[in-house]
Write a structure and sequence with these properties.
- The complex is a heterotrimer of chains A (about 210), B (about 280) and C (about 575).
- With about 210 residues, chain A is mainly alpha-helical.
- Helices cover about 70% and strands about 0% of the residues of chain A.
- The radius of gyration of chain A is 23 Å and the shape is globular.
- The two termini of chain C are about 30 Å apart.
- Classes of the chains: A mainly alpha (about 210), B mainly alpha (about 280), C mainly alpha (about 575).
Chain lengths: ~210, ~280, ~575
Amino acid sequence: MSTAPMTAYPTPPEALPQDGMSNGKFGIGLMIVSEITFFGTLIAAYVFYIGRDINPPYPQDVLEVSIAPFKVLFNSVFLLISSVWIWLAVRAMRKGRMGAFIFWWALTVVCGAEFLVGTGMEWYDMIVNDGVWIGTNLFGSGFYTVVGFHAFHVTMGLIVLTLILILALLGHVTPRNVEKIDLVSWYWHFVDGIWIVVFSVVYIFGNQAIT
Amino acid sequence: MTEPTHTKNIREIELPQPTASPMVTAFGFTLMVAGIVTNWIVAIVGCVIMFVGIVKWFGQSNPESKEMPAVPAPKPTPIVPRVDGVAHLISDSGHRARLPLAIHPYSAGIVGGLLGGVVMALVAVGWSLAMHGSLWYTVNLLAGCMLSDFAEQTTEQLYAFQTAGIIVGVMIQLVMSVSVGLLYGVVMPLLPRLHLLFAAILIPLMWSGLTWASISVINPALSEHINWLWFVISQISFGIVTGWWIIRSEKVSTMQNWHYLERMGIDSPGVRKMGEAE
Amino acid sequence: MRLAGDSEVSTLETPIGPATGRPPFLSQLHEWVTTVDHKKLGSMYVVCGIIYMIIAGLEASMMRWQLAWPGQTVLTPEEFNRLFTMHGTTMVFFVGMPILLGSANIMIPLMIGARDLAFPRLNAFGFWLFLFGSILLYFSYFGGQGLYGMGSAPDVGWFAYAPLTERTYSRGHSTDYWILGIFVAGIGSTATGINFIATILGMRCRGMTLMKMPLFVWIMLVDAILIVIALPPLAAAQIMLLFDRLLGAHFFDAQAGGSALLWQNLFWFFGHPEVYILILPAFAYVTEIIPVFSRKVIFGYPLMVAATVAIGFISLGVWVHHMFSVGLSPLINAIFMASTMLVGVPTGIKMFNWTATMIGGKIRFDTPMLFSIGFLCQFLMGGLTGIFLATVPFDWQVSDSYFVVGHFHYVLFGGLIFGILAATFYWYPKVTGRMMSETLGKWQFWLLIIGFNMTFGAMHVSGLLGMPRRIYTYQTERGWDLWNLLTSIGVIFQIAAFTLFAINLLHSAFKGRRAGDDPWDAWTLEWSTTSPPPAHNFDEDPVVYSRRPLWDLKHPEDPDWKYE
């Protein structure tokens, strides 16, 4: 080092060009990418099996796309609108309004919980009244795997959201934590976004394509 | 390094604290999964362990990541130019020169290939005249590459002049000589040493071996009548002549180290002229 | 060897020597178990990978003993099935994956001038998932109740084709262990892949733009992207299979309309990127080693980057070439034949760039370079037979024969393992602070070259003579005797070579010559810190101006940044 003439160096490079994105954002973003390939595989299998079932009941006998309370459209509205609530919550937190944050966050949790309850009721209906379970036929296998894994992700998200809500009520969440809270909201948006795909494939596309 | 701007006191560097929570979480998760194939109690135990791990992990990274100061360690030795022991690539064009700096011109390869092809043909025809008394025998055998019915011909027929045989034979000889000559011209400067040995002996031997392995498929006529000794001698005569011709040609510098403007032939006053320097 | 590290010895000896007294065993163990340091985790990955390599190698040796002569009865057919399944699974998931993750773990932060990976605890989590997942798989030897109630390992082949894996045909839990063990390890690998990408994109030191990164880091970036994209589909497919087996779902059950072909598609959609995930690190190792030992900068850096990215892309669209013989439509076969041949283009670019780097250089034939050259030659052979196999009619002839076995061993053994050996000899001084023995290394190299080519070269011939893979014995009149004997004799040479390697690794760790910071006169940042590096890697954050920061420091009169 001592032999290196300092004047020989070019001007020192200043800030990194990639300073914009934090590690956490990369991490959650990439986790969502891997989740998308995971769901993509399940959904591809579901699409592959549409119309190949040889045992009844077929989807159109069982699936009911209805806006009635606790039916699938009703639930979907609740889940999708929760994306808006969580976005408002993070926005409120960025502005330092913790009261508003807790309100919107709690609303998100309520909407997510409604979706889970609705899904549970739909499953109960299908299992008890229609007699469709995962081993009944191909439709059952695909339906419970795809919708089940989505519900599993909603459950995981809901647990995290609830814990954050409790911590916030106890006063442990401050506007300094906004980056981490924002990452949680990314995950929730992903769960909602993937539901649009699952819903379209299972309830609309897969519901008609069968003879 | 030498830039003073980012110098830090070693005590200010913070590293994450060691923690067992990732291992505990992973162990719990594995047990939970293993419960599927063993017993549900295992799964419950795994669940509990995983829960403990996650709680500990959460405590490690919230509200702030638990850090510890770095421990001072021996300083790395300063980086100095090292000239002892390790050979360095130094050429007139600097350490980033694209090698090889000069190559044989392609024309040398083509001409050498043609010359070698002629000499090889003379050797082969000479053998045919001396041993079989026929001027056309080797040409017909070579043409058997493309004229498959030659495989069924008798030796007497192969001795005789055939128009198709002479045309096809000469064409094959011409194309092969030029292509192999061109390859010789490109590959030979890349070898570190013993160029002529490579060109005159090694490549003809390898070529003969390749031919030996595949001749029954490529040229059934030749495979029946071939004299391997003479075949190898013809190949070597080609190698000697072509190699000799290429080696005696004057090397030309590649344009790899030129500025791209210069390579495109654009007159550009600011650019260092590598081409004219030589 | 011509090393200039001797002058550094005095500065190194005092602080890290054993004279200070080693801490007691338990606290050492505690230190390893709780560590979140990327170098320690990386070392554990590599050590575990090497241990599994020995286990899987012994499994292969037992199979070769059985097949050395016709009609042997060393193994029963059931044992043979378990051995080839465990050999393949172990080599892919518990040798290739951990060693690549481990080497990237150690080297990426050092090469980009960072203190650690982006998520150190997640990194530890990934390692422990790999380790526990692999133990879960091997536990199946004791826990997987087979048909007769005996312990049994999975016996369905490493790609576990349905419907053989359905519960009708694979009784007991052995296939479940295969699913779960790899599932657990796969989650860990995906997490670590995410970690690598975040690290490479977000934690480079000042001045290291993307086009100034060492090619090792570039290749590992593409590798990590492939891991993140390709491993979750395997997990999804395995979950479907698990539901079939445990809950009675019908995904791969043809009697209920399910499709065994879907499993093949899903598995190979993971499986083919996986083999590129495995071979890309070998590219990364030799891309660092060849320039240093040729004393020339790598030829065509931008093209190397482009070729790496191209391989990554193309590898996601070639999986059907594993399924040419199942009777898909000619159009599909033709499309995938073309895409498969397309891989040859970027790979060819890399081969030419490596050789062009060597041309005219001052080549040093030290052990890392020898293994790199061995890699070039053998990977070329494997690549060429790969092009043969990409041709549908040829594939129909030799599909599921020993020709295929020979082909992919030339790629994964002659390519990946030779790359790993080159990397071990090259970076061992950095990780441990001591040199490995060159004499033993050269003996190992030549023994391995002989043994490897004898074993797997002969497999090509027996395959062309019609010997199918995965048979536990054969009759003498088939004409395969000589080639099988040669294959098995080659294994003896390989065992000798790997014994030398193990001795070398252990002996050099305690008695090896002190390495100094920069034993090879190399150019990337990891050689600018001590060997072994301190926990915080660099006392001062490095600043780089070119692709070879250490060249700039060593040659201030003619620095690299003037050319870039």
